[in-house]
Design brief:
alpha/beta, two-stranded antiparallel sheet, 16 helices, 9 strands, flat, disordered N terminus
């Protein structure tokens, strides 16, 4: 029993605020859909003609009836605060007051409307069931997911000047949600020292041990120079943990399967056009860097002439690149050339959304010129990304620095909602033929 409680406590501590909020809102959605099902079931059992049937769902309820869950979710917005979810009296007051007001307003409309034009039973039961299920979910969430004084357990990687300054800012700023556990630094002389009130706990070899022991959910990078390979691998592995990454992988698989259907449709047409224009091959594979710097073969429809890089030197495509074929020009502008990468998504080499996968030679060059450029490898690269939809192709150091800022912003704030936004903007780019 004690072990079960310990596991539950550890699980609660490891959840990030974003993950807690997602679970809370998702539970409210499930609760209100259950309320809708109960109200329809109760209403249908009283219908002697249609009864519980698909015909009843189509004919009896007006279209606005199915919008009641959305109305309820909007009215329950004050309950979506993970820090106050344990205040049951406040929750009870909000839910009961809202339900009573909704029922009263509806009854007023019901008695003023023409006879038998509005359902009474279904609507009243919906609001009562929604109130009960909402209260029940709030109690479940409080028991399994709520953490009192939910400060974010944080470790600062790097105990140099940058790390010291960050610790100083946290100490002197009111309302900061970080609970700093300590520093991690590979300088053996610093281990055990106290800096700004926080101990240097260990080197990077104990990174995962520190994460597990202290249930750390936030890592602040304070290293501006070379990043040790061991620490870099540890950071990328920790970035892949958590509820979000599981949900994102499921999202990738679903998107990848849908993409493969479209790939199967366009492949015959692209193949014929390419063979007529410049001959074989139709497909082209290129080595790219993936998660943690691992290499993989990224698939594309060929858009350049054969042997476009005879000397073996990697050259990014320019705006009016003479190597691009006539068919290839259209494929690049429409982004159809990238559709074979859905196979890379299903393999787990790419995600639907993430930083652009670059070639090893280009990453090696930019690493020397752009600070933190290697940080893009902390997450799985994407078929499309926040940087791609906000900036054109980057050629020089300055443009790649700006693009890196977008990538780092995405890594910090990534969520399924942000991924959907990126996909939406990508579709606008595709239909506008704005690719290159």
């Amino acid at each position: 029993m004690a072990e079960s409680h310990s596991i539950r406590s550890t699980f609660k501590q490891r959840l990030t605020p974003k993950e807690r909020r997602f679970i809370l809102i998702f539970g409210h959605i499930v609760a209100v859909l259950l309320a809708l099902a109960v109200s329809l079931l109760s209403w249908a059992t009283e219908d002697d003609w249609l009864g519980i049937s698909f015909s009843f769902l189509l004919e009896r309820p007006e279209p606005w009836f199915y919008l009641l869950p959305l109305l309820w979710l909007i009215l329950m917005v004050p309950l979506y605060n993970v820090r106050e979810v344990h205040h049951f009296q406040k929750t009870l007051r909000i839910v009961i007051t809202t339900a009573l007001i909704c029922i009263a307003v509806y009854l007023l409309i019901f008695f003023l409307a023409p006879a038998k034009t509005l359902p009474r039973r279904g609507v009243i039961i919906f609001f009562i069931a929604a109130a009960i299920f909402t209260l029940l979910w709030q109690r479940i969430f409080t028991h399994f997911f709520f953490v009192k004084n939910a400060f974010i357990n944080t470790i600062i990687v790097g105990a140099g000047k940058a790390g010291q300054k960050i610790a100083e800012i946290i100490n002197t700023t009111e309302g900061v949600p970080y609970h700093v556990i300590g520093f991690i630094d590979d300088d053996p002389w610093k281990i055990g020292m106290e800096i700004e009130g926080y101990r240097v706990l260990s080197g990077s070899e104990d990174y995962f041990k520190m994460i597990e022991t202290h249930q750390v959910t936030q890592v602040i990078m304070a290293i501006s120079n070379h990043l040790d390979d061991t620490l870099f691998d540890a950071l990328t592995m920790s970035e892949e943990r958590g509820f979000f990454e599981i949900a994102k992988r499921v999202f990738d698989i679903i998107g990848g399967l849908v993409g493969m259907v479209f790939l199967a449709i366009v492949t015959p047409f692209v193949s014929i056009a390419t063979l007529i224009d410049t001959g074989r091959p139709v497909f082209y594979s290129q080595e790219r860097l993936g998660l943690r710097g691992s290499t993989f073969k990224m698939l594309k429809f060929r858009t350049m002439v054969q042997n476009a890089e005879k000397d073996g030197v990697a050259r990014p495509a320019s705006e009016h690149d003479s190597r691009i074929t006539r068919v290839g020009s259209f494929l690049r502008r429409s982004h159809i050339d990238e559709m074979p990468q859905f196979l890379n998504v299903l393999r787990g080499e790419l995600s639907l959304v993430g930083p652009r996968a670059e070639r090893p030679q280009i990453v090696k060059e930019l690493q020397r010129e752009v600070p933190f450029y290697r940080a893009r490898l902390l997450v799985r690269p994407g078929l499309t990304g926040w940087a791609q939809v906000n900036q054109n192709y980057a050629a020089g150091t300055e443009e790649n620095t700006i693009k890196l800022e977008y990538d780092l912003y995405y890594i910090k704030h990534r969520s399924l909602l942000m991924d959907l936004s990126v996909i939406f903007h990508t579709l606008k780019t595709i239909f506008g033929l704005k690719g290159r």
